[in-house]
Structure formats: structure tokens, C-alpha cells
Design a protein that fits this description.
Layout (H helix, E strand, L loop, with lengths): L8 H17 L4 E2 L4 E2 L4 H9 L7 H20 L3 H21 L2 H4 L6 H27 L6 H25 L3 H4 L4 H22 L8 H35 L3 H6 L3 H50 L1 E7 L4 E4 L1 H6 L7 E4 H6 L6 H14 L3 E8 L5 E12 L5 E10 L1
Antiparallel strand pairs: 1-2, 3-4, 3-8, 4-5, 6-7, 7-8
């Protein structure tokens, strides 16, 4: 794999600062006197940075992130040893995620594709936190809380942070984000994202009515209108808004659950459900767009090739009264190039009356014998001009081996 180029100094410092800011923001995503971490987004920023720089810069970068994280948590908690130990576990988490996501096979994937998203969720969102969890459990042992609760706090907070914010950061270098740079698309994206954020604020400004389902409607709009990048941005904004307001005691989650652990658990379930529902749909739609564009480009190139070579293709299903003609087949017959269906009887009648029966009989043989057909004949254009053509092709079969049609090419000779 070609190593990532050295980043611009300004970009590197900005990303490093954002990672530190994410660590500081993590202090706002802790609830109650137990300081249960509901969401940890620092690792997503760190991973995004590491995947954009050469590996030789990883040790110094991870060390810088560790120093910032430890300092923030020491100041926030007043403790020393525990923040340092948890920072060490966090650095291991970041390194494991970077090593797994930086493999050549994954690095070659399009950032908004279902395969990349699946690997991000599995490797960076699940396996990396699992790999670093033993260190975290050793650090917090003896500080209260059951082993199961401590494992849940570490795994879910780190996984949720990566799943909810990671796709956005990875999408920044994808084709999906580039599609939003057009002024009209950017204005639409801004309106939908801001509208989703305001809707979330309105829902969480009260705690009497369980109206969380309205947020899903806004997320679905983002998916279908903005693609993967827009959906990733909306998920990240929604996650952070819900986390901050729930932590401040606002909204249906805080209003319904008095117990802090239950509140954190429900918040995490809600965000995980939203992210794991919306992002895969967005990735699949993005993949469909790419495949459609690729198919259209291949079709365009095929049409150009046929035009240059004066070769067209056609297909007819057995028992059908129409046949498909490519643009070049229409041109061959002296008709406007409108790729589509042609009445079968009319298509046969284009052949010279002296050749018509011979062509029909030869085209019937492949269905009976399964052999490739090859026949020449004359066609009469609407202008009266006679053209000599060669038809060559083969029968098509279904999975049972039953013939279902004929496919062939027409060559102007």
C-alpha cells in the first residue's frame, strides 16, 4: 500500500486540536456522580487523523493525543493515576483501530461504501474497544462498579462514539461529500442538517411527550436527499445534541429515567439504533448510485464502440413480439438512433424478400441445436438503399438450461 503523504502543517495541527477538543467534549458526555461516560468521540477524530498521515508519524501523534487526553481528565476529575491508565487504554484502542482500518484492502475501498462502513463498525467500532478493554478494566478495578458495568461503560461508549462520528470524518474524503459542494446542494444540506438539529432541540426541550420517533423522520430525509455524507453529518449532529441535552437533564430520556445508568443505557440504545439503521441505508443508496453511474458509463462506451465499428447488438425473447435494438442497429437500418424496442415482424421485414426466409430459418436453428449462428443477408432501408449485413450470435438459457431468447450482433459489411 502506498503510504499516506505527509500532511500540510496547518491541517495536521487543526486535526490534532480537534482531537483534543473532542477529548475535552467527552467530559460533557459523562453523567451523574459515577461519571458514566455515555459517548467517547475522541477515537474517531484520532483515527481519521492517523489514516491521513504516514505511519512514521503515528507514535508521536498518538503520544500527543494521549498527553492531551490525560491532561484534560486529570483536570476534570482531580485524580492522576486513573486518568493516565484510561488514557493508555484509549491510545491502545486508537492504535488497534488504525492498524486494522489502515490495511491495503480496506484503504482501497470508497469511504461511503457499505463494505467500508461495515469494516469501520466491526473493526474500529467493536474489535478495537474489545482489544483495549482489559487494560481499562484493570485500571478501574477497585474504583467501584461491577466488572460487567465497567466493561459495558468502556465498550459501548467507545463503540458508539466511533459509529456515530467516525462515518462523518471518513466521508470527508469521499465522493459523497464532494457532491454537496455545489451551492444549491450545499444550501439544501445546510437546511436539512440545521432543521434536524432544531427538531432535536425542540423534542428535547420538553420531557413530557415521547416524541423521539420524529428524529428518525428527519434522518430518513437526510439519507434520501443528501446521500451518505449528509446522513453521516446529520447523525453526528443529532448524537451530540441528544447527548448534551440528556446530560443537562432535558428531554424525554432524562425525564423518563431517573436512574443515571438506565438513562445512559437508553441514550446509547437510541443512538445506536439510529446510526445502525440510517447509515447502512445511506451506504447502500450511495453504492447503488455508483453502480448506476458505472453502468451508464459502460453503456456509453459500448455505444461509442459500436458507432465506430458499425456493429450493433440486439436481443429477442422467445415468444415475444418485440426485439431490443441498440442505437447502432437502428443506424444500420437507416433509422434514427433511439435505443429501445422494435416490433419483431417489422424487424424481419427489413430483410430483402429473397433473404428473409433464409435468415428466419437460420435464426431458428440455435434454439433447436444450441449452436452459434452466423448468417449474412441484405436489408432494405426506408430510403430504398440496400445494405449487406452479417448477423452472429448465440441462444440464451435460464438456470434450468431452457432456451429463453437469442442475443446477437449486426455487422455492416
Amino acid at each position: 500500500m502506498a503510504e499516506a503523504k505527509s500532511p500540510r502543517y496547518g491541517f495536521y495541527i487543526a486535526m490534532l486540536a480537534l482531537t483534543g477538543l473532542a477529548a475535552w467534549a467527552g467530559t460533557f458526555f459523562t453523567l451523574g456522580p459515577q461519571r458514566i461516560t455515555a459517548l467517547w468521540i475522541t477515537n474517531a477524530f484520532a483515527l481519521s487523523l492517523l489514516l491521513r498521515i504516514p505511519r512514521r508519524m503515528w507514535p508521536a501523534t498518538i503520544a500527543a493525543i494521549g498527553v492531551m487526553t490525560a491532561t484534560i481528565w486529570i483536570i476534570s476529575t482531580g485524580a492522576i493515576l486513573r486518568p493516565i491508565g484510561l488514557t493508555l487504554a484509549t491510545c491502545v484502542d486508537i492504535l488497534l483501530a488504525a492498524l486494522m482500518m489502515g490495511s491495503p484492502r480496506i484503504a482501497a475501498m470508497e469511504r461511503g461504501s457499505p463494505r467500508y462502513l461495515g469494516n469501520l463498525i466491526l473493526r474500529a467500532g467493536m474489535l478495537a474497544p474489545l482489544g483495549s478493554m482489559p487494560i481499562a478494566l484493570l485500571v478501574v478495578a477497585g474504583h467501584g462498579g461491577s466488572l460487567l458495568n465497567n466493561a459495558q461503560d468502556w465498550l459501548v461508549a467507545h463503540s458508539l462514539g466511533m459509529i456515530s462520528v467516525g462515518p462523518l470524518l471518513m466521508a470527508l474524503s469521499s465522493n459523497s461529500i464532494r457532491s454537496l459542494r455545489h451551492p444549491r446542494r450545499a444550501a439544501e444540506a445546510l437546511a436539512i442538517i440545521v432543521g434536524s438539529a432544531l427538531l432535536t432541540v425542540v423534542i428535547f426541550a420538553q420531557g413530557s411527550y415521547p416524541t423521539l420517533f420524529f428524529i428518525f423522520a428527519a434522518l430518513i430525509v437526510a439519507v434520501f436527499r443528501l446521500g451518505f455524507a449528509g446522513a453521516a453529518i446529520t447523525i453526528a449532529v443529532t448524537t451530540i445534541t441528544v447527548a448534551l441535552m440528556t446530560n443537562a437533564g432535558y428531554g424525554p430520556i432524562a425525564g423518563y429515567f431517573a436512574d443515571i445508568r438506565e438513562r445512559v443505557t437508553f441514550f446509547q440504545i437510541f443512538i445506536a439504533t439510529a446510526a445502525l439503521t440510517v447509515l447502512p441505508i445511506a451506504a447502500l443508496l450511495e453504492e447503488r448510485k455508483r453502480l448506476t453511474a458505472r453502468a451508464e458509463e459502460r453503456s456509453r462506451q459500448l455505444e461509442l464502440g459500436e458507432s465506430v465499428a458499425h456493429v450493433g447488438h440486439w436481443r429477442v425473447s422467445l415468444g415475444a413480439d418485440e426485439t431490443f435494438w441498440s442505437d447502432e442497429v437502428f443506424r444500420l437500418h437507416g433509422l434514427p438512433p433511439v435505443s429501445g424496442m422494435m416490433n419483431l415482424e417489422r424487424a424481419i421485414n427489413f430483410f430483402h424478400e429473397d433473404d428473409r426466409q433464409k435468415v428466419v430459418e437460420i435464426l431458428q436453428r440455435p434454439i433447436e441445436t444450441g449452436q452459434i449462428y452466423d448468417v449474412t443477408g441484405r436489408i432494405v432501408r426506408p430510403s430504398g438503399e440496400i445494405r449487406h449485413v452479417r448477423l452472429r450470435g448465440l441462444p440464451e438459457y435460464n438456470e434450468d438450461g431452457t432456451p429463453i431468447g437469442l442475443f446477437g450482433v449486426g455487422i455492416d459489411i
